[in-house]
Amino acid sequence: MINMLAKFSPYLLILAPLFSSTGYVRLSETSFCMDNCSIYYLESETGDFITWITHLDDLDMLLDYQDRFVTIEGDTVSCVECAAIDVDSIELSYDCLYPVYCFADPCGVSNCPSYPEAECVSNFCGGCWADYYVDGEWIPCNSTPDCVDLTAIDFGDCDMPIGIGFVNNSCVSISGCSWVIDSVDYSNAFFETMADCEAVCSSVSSESSNHPPIRIQLVQNYPNPFNPRTSINFSIETFHPTSLRIFDLSGRLVKTLLDRTLSPGNYEIDWDATNNTGQKVSGGIYYYTLEVGDFKETRKMVLLK
């Protein structure tokens, strides 16, 4: 085990943590609490909620662990409306009982742009991600967004800050209601800092970064978790044979939702939690995979019962 928190906050020490647990770190899509205690939570391997978790000194620290299988220790704290575990130590854990089915070796389909020399280690329990190490030390690997002109995109009238983007030939802070507009997910077009945006977009003029065409893109299903029905949205840019399939936790095919050639456009497909024989499936974790030509992407969803 590697104590990951020491890298981020070496000064945080609690001699006798009151809580210890293992599970997946999840980012909450919706919460009735609306405070720093209800942004992240810990989920069991079977998709059950365990506890809210936070790190009040540096909440963004938990972002590097999102969807990874970890062991945490910490003390209970209260925020405005919710209580959570204030994480004192966090470690990647490879001791999961139900290893996630991998559709491809993560080290064969990913890379670390910021550290090309890093050693890739497949982490099949932690969501089939690839972890990277330099001289034996874990490093975060975040891909750099492309410069996308967001001038013509209306993200809504909400006051929620959603990131820094390229608008009217300059980098600005953008507020809105969501990163998903007309079933297109623009989250990868945002930067964490103004400096990152300017570094990528400095040589891009408004003439060369026009509103992008429809891309092959798979959006997270909604609602998620769900019962008994959920919607899956995706977009394609050219005529291609297209398939959308549901798999269970062990990788077995559950349902083929789509398998034919589609024209360019945005699509929404519903799944009613039945298999290919029309029978209702049990609650738990499922995966949906979109294949369009050589493009292939898989996302996770949770069916509640």
Q: Can I get a quick summary?
A:
Helices cover 5% and strands 41% of the residues. By secondary structure, it is mainly β.
General shape: globular
Note the beta-strand portion.
Answer: 35-45%
Count of DSSP E strands?
19
> Helices and strands: which structural class?
mainly beta
Q: Count structural domains.
A: 4
CATH topology of the largest domain: OB fold (Dihydrolipoamide Acetyltransferase, E2P)
Order of helices and strands: HEEEEEHEEEEEEEHEEEEEEE
First-to-last CA distance: 34 Å
CATH class of the largest domain: Mainly Beta
Helix amount:
under 10%
Oligomeric category: single chain
Q: How does the major sheet shape up? A: 5 strands, mixed, barrel
Low-pLDDT segments, ≥5 res: 1-16, 205-214
Q: Give the averaged pLDDT, no decimals.
A: 78
> How many distinct helices?
3
Gyration radius over CA: 20 Å
Strand line-up of the largest beta sheet: 1-2-3-5-4
CATH architecture of the largest domain: Beta Barrel
